[in-house]
Write a structure and sequence with these properties.
The protein is α+β, with helices and mostly antiparallel strands and 238 residues long. The protein has a single domain, classed as Spore Coat Polysaccharide Biosynthesis Protein SpsA, Chain A (Alpha-Beta Complex), CATH 3.90.550.10. The protein is 31% helix and 20% strand. The chain has nine helices and eleven strands.
Length: 238
């Protein structure tokens, strides 16, 4: 997904085109997607600055336009038509440049082998100090009675904010289940008034649907929402 603005990172560019180590965020990620050898043409969801993103990436990818930026669930729903023949869908955010091809392969294998409706990627942190401070506002993974709930930071309680397992937004879905329940998301349930993709975790848990997870290295999961966090990425990769 590459529809967002670079507002918080203080860039006039779409966030996907913020430069990092000589390449744009989205280029780092799409190189990993290409190397994962998943036998489907990647679909890039674009919105703000879409002409710039499409020009930069060229004709190698299929594009879907999200006219309004109403949240992650809304962005994925925009791709429904382009994914109509898919049995499973992998969603990766365009501002996660360090996701590895092996992680994408591992995610898909776990998803297919388990027969889950949702398979998520998480990272477990020892604390939120030093470079790990970049994870403070990530969604928290709440595990209760064998169920997995993703609580957005803005909507988390103080106790939930102390949880050190975070959602890193590299997710596989059963496509039929995904399209059915995306349309049932409620933007009035959260402080941002957006359609949260992560609300699907709670829907699946309530409906006793299967959710699986894989765990990845926290450094691989890092993104950036500020110039300070961007500087952290530069240091960790060099």
């Amino acid at each position: 997904m590459a529809a967002g603005k670079g507002t918080r990172i203080k860039s006039e560019l779409p966030k996907a085109l913020v430069p990092l180590l000589g390449k744009h965020f989205i280029k780092h990620l799409l190189e990993s997607v290409d190397k994962s050898n998943i036998d489907k043409k990647p679909i890039v969801v674009v919105g703000y600055g879409r002409d710039l993103v499409m020009k930069e990436l060229g004709e190698k990818y299929e594009y879907v336009i999200q006219e309004e930026q109403l949240g992650t669930g809304h962005a994925v729903l925009a791709s429904k038509g382009a994914c109509k023949d898919a049995e499973n869908v992998i969603v990766i955010f365009g501002d996660q440049p360090f996701i590895k091809p092996e992680t994408i392969q591992k995610l898909l294998k776990k998803h297919l082998d388990s027969g889950a409706n949702i398979t998520i990627s998480t990272a477990v942190l020892e604390d939120f100090n030093d470079w790990r401070e970049a994870f403070i506002k990530y969604g928290r993974i709440i595990r209760e009675n064998g169920k997995i709930i993703d609580r957005e930071y803005k909507d988390a309680s103080l106790e939930e904010k102390n949880v050190k397992e975070v959602n890193v937004s590299c997710i596989a879905f059963n496509a039929k289940w995904l399209w059915k329940y995306l349309e049932k998301l409620d933007r009035n349930k959260n402080s941002q008034k957006e359609y949260y993709l992560t609300d699907l975790w709670e829907i699946a848990s309530t409906d006793n649907k299967k959710i699986e997870s894989i765990q990845i290295n926290p450094k691989e999961a890092l993104g950036a929402n500020s110039q300070e966090e961007l500087a952290i990425l530069e240091k960790l990769k060099t």
